[in-house]
Every structure is written in structure tokens, then in C-alpha cells.
């Protein structure tokens, strides 16, 4: 069988890629998804059957690809069928790390469960039903271990969470069920030696293009440039699986039409929940931590969080029980990385810091992201318009429409030093390649001054 586009994998990234193909107007018969799972792509975190699959696309299920020859653009299944493609999206995700991988004694016992695919979830549910009120050991203290422990507690299991089933002190825990959540490893074996790899994944650019022409990699398997941190990274989270898939498909269609799209500029985002707690995390969890809020479980108003501070700037934020507005505010903080003078003050301010920072920067930040890549004259016009709509005294900036060239005067370079900005000249147009935090109207002048722009007034 031959297809114009093939998505290899039937998980989150595959589902979102298929949806984006449909948005971009893929024609019937052009696209196939090949997945070893027996069901259409679904949202893995919920492990619900919320299928993501649009119509008009060939779904080749229960089909494991065992050989990939990227040079001849051919995939071969376990049953010996051959699939040809013009463009391939690798979305094979990760596989769970099994206790057998560590050579753990008794690792092949029947009551040991893993959770990656829907049939594994079904098997675990059956075991939970069969061993009512039993004892469970959850191996692994990451978010999956935590979520599983909560689910087992809700089902009246007596749960112990450990990092080793036979504990290092020699004790042995009894268990009716052992659930293992010790992490995953990207499924790249099919492509070994044919494609460039880095940090355990398939290396891509900001459009998820790999080192092999017409081959893209998305989701858990992709090691991609994380622009915000100027680093290449691999991310095993659903938000990135969705966004990377959309980016790759947009890039494919853009290149077919001789167009270009913006680089992927990902802000790490992760969410999880256990019992009646739910939390969101944005940014990077590096540097010093500052805890804030009320974390007493018995408190009716409990809401707590944490900031991560590196090089005097907030680089990550976590919040439990946040409202959508509060979560938006911590996301903004992680994106713009405002400076922090005192960690004690930050702890006292807590969530107010994020909300305040959002109000301060809302107008300008929006402006920069909206006009990125456009001609500078449009940037200024959009900036003026945006600033004009900010209510005076509303906690945000209100600038007079008289931004003049050189208006920042001698103060400009000093003010600029503490900010992140860069200008790139290309074909007579200017592009901002990173974000700029503007704390006040005069900084708009500074910004224009930096770009050596004449005022239109
Ligand atoms: C139980 C669980 C809970 C999670 N909860 C969260 C959460 O709360 N928040 C969060 O951000 N992230 C969560 N994650 C992580 C998130 O689900 C993954 O990051 C995401 O699924 C990655 O998407 P993907 O499409 O790259 O890979 P996957 O969704 O793993 O899909 C890979 C697909 O490729 C198929 N495949 C692989 N090899 C082959 C082959 N050779 N032939 C054919 N098909 C193949 C697989 O069968 C699968 O269908 C969770 C993961 C699990 C397992």
C-alpha cells in the first residue's frame, strides 16, 4: 500500500497530527495512521476512549511496524505487509521501563502491572475488581505512581509506594497487585543508524524535521530545540505531544505551498491530579524553590504553589487548585521570567506576584507575540494601538503616543541591559527573536530607541 503521508504510531501525537492534517485539507486516501494498538488514537492521560480521530483517513490498526527503511521510504509490518510513503511522521512515543529491564528478581510475576496503553489499563481494572480491598505496592514515585496510588486508595486498596519492591533494608512488602510506574524510554529502535539521535530521542529542528528528508518526529520521541532555554530537549508530556504534532503538520503543508511558519517556541507545561488535588506546572524546575500559600490538607482554603528561581529570575511555577486565570498568570510568569529581588518577599507575595506581573506585562507582551515576524512599522502601529487600549491606572502601562527616537536617552542602555531583547535585520524588516518585558511607558521609547526607529508622531 502507498500513501502520501504516513503517521507511524497511534497515540496522542498521532491523533493531533491527524486532526491538523484534516484542518489543512488533506484529501481522502492521502493519509494513513499505522498503529500497533487495536483502537484509534486516544487521550492517554485519561486513558479514556475519547478518540481524536477525524474521518477520511486510513486507520491501519493492530499493525506493528517491525522494519523501517528510510532510504526507500518503506515500512514493513510484523505480518509482512509493505507500506510506502512520501512523507513520514514518526510518533512512536515511549514504552514503559519494565522491572525485567533491571533484572529484578520475580519481575515476570503475573500480578505486576504497567500502564501505557488502553489494554494495560483494562487489565489493571480487572485485577482491581478481582482483589477488592487488597494490598497494592506502587513502584515509582513520579506522577504516574502518584496518580495510580490515589486511584488504588479510592478503590480501598492498602497502598505502599516504594522505589524498590524488595526494599534496600531487606523488608519485603506483601502485595496482591504491584503496579510499576518508573518511567518510559522513547521508541527509536526501528530507526537506529538511519537517523540522527540526541538525548535518547530523534533529533529534529523547530519544525520537527529530522536529519532524513521528508521524515518528521513528534511527541515523546522528538529531541527538539527549546527556544526559551536555548537548549535541545525531549519532553514526555501530552501538551507537547499535541503541539509538536500540529507544528509538524503545519510545517509540512507550509513547505508544500512554498510558505514558512514560525519556529516552535514551547513553554513546558504539565498537569496532573490525585484525589481532589489538581496542579499545573509551567516552565523549568531548576534553581532555588520558593514555596507559598496554604498547604494544610485540612484547611478549607488550601491553595499552594512554588516558584523556581534561577539567575535572579522566576523560571518555573507550580500551582495547586488554581483557577483558569491563576494558571494563566503562572504560565505568563514562567514565559516572561520576571526578575526577583527577594526570595522572602516572593514567598510572602505568593500568587499575587504572578497576578501582578501578568497585569503589568499584559499589554506589551501580547503585542510582541502577535506581531513577531512582521514588518517593524506594523509592530509600532500595533504597539500604539495596544497601549491606547490599556486603561490608565489599571496596573498596566499607559504610554503617551509620543514615543520619539532617542527619547530613552542615556538611560536606555542601562534599562535595556536588564531586559531580554535582540533585533535581527533581514530583508529590510526587523524581527524580534525573544520576549521583552516592559514595565512602563518609557520603556516603549527605550525599545524604539534600541531599534533606532523614528517616531511617527
Ligand atoms: C498512564 C499515563 C498517564 C499520563 N498522564 C499524563 C499527564 O497527566 N499529563 C501529561 O502531560 N502527560 C501524561 N502522560 C504522558 C503522555 O501521555 C505522553 O507524553 C504522550 O502520550 C506522548 O504522545 P506520543 O504520541 O508521543 O506517544 P504515545 O501516546 O505513547 O503513542 C505512541 C503510539 O505509537 C504506537 N507504536 C509504537 N511503536 C510502534 C510500532 N513499531 N508500530 C506501530 N505502532 C507503534 C504505540 O502503540 C502508540 O499507539 C501519561 C502517560 C501515561 C502512560
Automatic annotation (TrEMBL):
Catalytic activity: 2 monodehydro-L-ascorbate radical + NADH + H(+) = 2 L-ascorbate + NAD(+)
Cofactor(s), names only, from the UniProt record: FAD
Sequence ranges assigned to domain FAD/NAD(P)-binding in this UniProt record: 3-162
Entry's EC annotation: 1.6.5.4
This protein's record includes keyword Repeat: no
Domain of life: Eukaryota
Pfam families in the record: MDHAR3-like_C, Pyr_redox_2
Domain Monodehydroascorbate reductase 3-like C-terminal span(s) in chain numbering: 267-354
Keywords: FAD, Flavoprotein, NAD, Oxidoreductase, Redox-active center
Primary role: Catalyzes the conversion of monodehydroascorbate to ascorbate, oxidizing NADH in the process.
Family membership: Belongs to the FAD-dependent oxidoreductase family.
Protein name in the entry: monodehydroascorbate reductase (NADH)
Organism: Rehmannia glutinosa
